[in-house]
Automatic annotation (TrEMBL):
The keyword Mitochondrion is annotated on this UniProt entry: yes
Lineage: Eukaryota, Metazoa, Chordata, Craniata, Vertebrata
Key words of the record: Mitochondrion, Transit peptide
Gene3D superfamilies with a match to the protein in the record: 3.40.50.880
Protein name: GAL3A protein
């Protein structure tokens, strides 16, 4: 068969209009067009963990859902955790404290991160386009004292710094399950959701959290877990929240709701 003509001839054969359009899109020629495409990069997202296990650390299903949806969205992910002792250790087979044990939040979080994790002290806004906090009682025990002190809680110094820095930089913050209390405490006037405000026969066992959020000065927005209404977007503060395991429901609803949160966080990065 005859050899193919060079690319420039093929483009010309398709008409001058196409060539003109390409020149306008890339005044420096096709080489500049392709180099410009290469400069587009994925969103860089920090994920902050609080240990490993729902009752004394990060809720593992939530962390996994966050990571899956970030991967699907093409994000570059780095995980962090504070290098501090856990409030206590829970024997998850019994749901009771293991009195003789003590564990480190960073060391335990490394289980979820498969070892690829850094101290929260190293997290900076310059290196990331967004930050996400999965839930689990670790957010209320290790990242803050909310589990003990409620509205009078203190937030870990590095967690507070990260939240304030990302907010000041106008970069999105995602939180799910109980972790929205962190934003409610640190970011004045933030709008968040932890789901419903009544227990409704046990469907929303932690509904009282909504009242504490209001006492912290934040606005609570009633939301569902399901895909129809799964996340609340505070566009002013760029805070995105979803109830996740605050609700007793099927796992796929939790997964989808977290997916909506992640999708909105990535959208707010503009990447």
């Amino acid at each position: 068969p005859p050899p193919l003509p060079p690319p420039s001839a093929m483009l010309t054969s398709r008409g001058p209009a196409l060539c003109t359009a390409l020149r306008r899109a890339a005044p420096g020629g096709l080489a500049s067009f392709h180099s410009s495409a290469r400069r587009c990069r994925a969103a860089r997202v920090a994920v902050v963990l609080s240990g490993c296990g729902v009752y004394d650390g990060t809720e593992i299903h939530e962390a996994s859902a966050v990571l899956v949806h970030l991967s699907r969205g093409g994000a570059e992910v780095q995980m962090y955790a504070p290098d501090v002792p856990q409030m206590h250790v829970i024997d998850h087979s019994k749901g009771q404290p293991a009195e003789a044990e003590s564990r480190n939040v960073l060391v335990e979080s490394a289980r979820i991160a498969r070892g690829k994790i850094a101290s929260l002290a190293k997290l900076t806004t310059a290196d990331h386009d967004a930050v996400i906090f999965p839930g689990g009682f670790g957010a209320a025990k290790n990242l803050s004292t909310f589990a003990v002190d409620g509205k009078d809680c203190k937030v870990n110094r590095e967690v507070e710094r990260v939240l304030k820095d990302f907010h000041k930089a106008g970069k999105p913050i995602g939180l799910c399950c109980i972790s929205p209390v962190l934003a409610a405490k640190v970011l004045s006037g933030a709008e968040v959701t932890v789901g419903h405000e009544e227990e409704e026969g046990g469907k929303w066992p932690y509904a009282g959290t909504a009242g504490a959020i209001k006492e912290l000065g934040a606005k609570h927005c009633v939301k569902e877990v399901t895909i129809s209404f799964p996340a609340h977007v505070d566009t002013k503060n760029k805070v995105v929240t979803t109830p996740a395991f605050m609700c007793e429901t099927a796992l796929h609803h939790i997964f989808d709701g977290i997916g909506a949160m992640v999708k909105n966080v990535l959208k707010l990065t503009g990447k």
